[in-house]
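Is this the right way to post structure tokens for a design question? Let me know if I should format differently. Anyway, here goes:
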């Protein structure tokens, strides 16, 4: 299982997924509708927790491209 946290940007409320088990130095893997895969800092100070109804479209997109082993968590610990 791959741990994922869904957050939304304070600036525009778009949702980003942080893959906590995809580490690359100080970064973790991330995914957004626009831009898709990349590395990002987590925790990111410009994001807030996303609610299930807010991240549902992104979760569906992730499952559609093969992420079928996700475990949604609310904190990294």
């Amino acid at each position: 299982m791959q741990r994922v946290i869904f957050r939304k940007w304070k600036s525009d409320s778009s949702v980003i997924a942080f893959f906590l088990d995809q580490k690359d130095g100080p970064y973790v893997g991330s995914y957004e509708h626009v831009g898709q895969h990349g590395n990002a800092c987590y925790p990111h100070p410009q994001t807030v927790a996303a609610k299930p109804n807010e991240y549902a479209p992104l979760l569906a997109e992730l499952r559609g491209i093969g992420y079928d082993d996700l475990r949604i968590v609310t904190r990294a610990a």
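Format looks fine. Someone answered above. Worth noting: The mean pLDDT is 95. The longest strand covers residues 15-24.
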